Amino acid sequence: MINGGLVLEGGGMKGLFTAGVLDFLMDKKIMFSSVYGVSAGACHMTSYISGQRGRAYDISVDYLDTRWYCGLPSLITTGNLFNTGIAYGLVPDTLNPFDHEAYEKYEGNAYAVATDVETGKPAYLHLKNCRGRNMDKLRASASLPLVANMVKVGGKKYLDGGLSDAIPLERSIMSGNEKNLVVLTKEVGYIRKPIPAYELATLKLRYAAYPQVWKLMKDRDIRYNDQMKYIERMEKEGKALIIRPQEKSETKRIDKNPEHLKALYNDGYSEAEKNYEKIAAYFGL
What we know:
Blueprint: E1 2-8, H1 16-27, E2 32-38, H2 40-49, H3 55-61, H4 72-78, H5 84-95, H6 100-104, E3 109-116, E4 122-126, H7 134-141, E5 151-153, E6 156-160, H8 169-174, E7 180-183, H9 197-206, H10 211-218, H11 220-236, E8 241-243, H12 258-274, H13 276-283
Parallel strand pairs: 1-2, 1-7, 2-3, 7-8
Antiparallel strand pairs: 3-4, 3-6, 5-6
């Protein structure tokens, strides 16, 4: 096991890039002592830790044709674009069983990053296992504003971790990880743009009782772009190694096109493969 950090950005279906990278790491039997996953990154992190190669890809694409799994029917009836009963119940329990025993043998530390809606601060939720209420930590990390309900964990309410700490490299470094592999889902040169005014107005109305949510979304582009500068600086200083798409993908944040998703997964795998010698040299494998 590498004594270092693995940092996984979110991005909805763009997380298929991450799934490809993680499958390559599994093929090379590369495991890290600390893993920080945000949103989709947190969900894919669990299959990586349990050693279930291909599972992250399968659970992302196999059920998209199911009417109640992802889409308006689920959003209207449950408040969640992705039906949580299916995504966090039926799928891991029955359709594509999650290997809890393998996950719980992991000797490192895994964290699902979520956002405290009261304070607007990130929460790094330790994921010792994925049983029972611990699944709420994953749901919290991947609960996007407007298309998912807030999730209560330990008496606090949370939304998507990307709101407050989209790429938790700084947290990993502050926790003592001197070397980190950072997997991004945005392509080289990506610059986040300000959120449209109409969407901000909707957010302000929807989360009137939680003003920190609106404030985080209002400044999200500035904080994300600053965070990218920090990550690139850390790479130059030898504290991080970045793997990310080299070109913009056709895959959207919410995408049901299997060809787009397969291509992005393959891109993630091949990008990790291209960087294997660099990864091996950087971590002394």
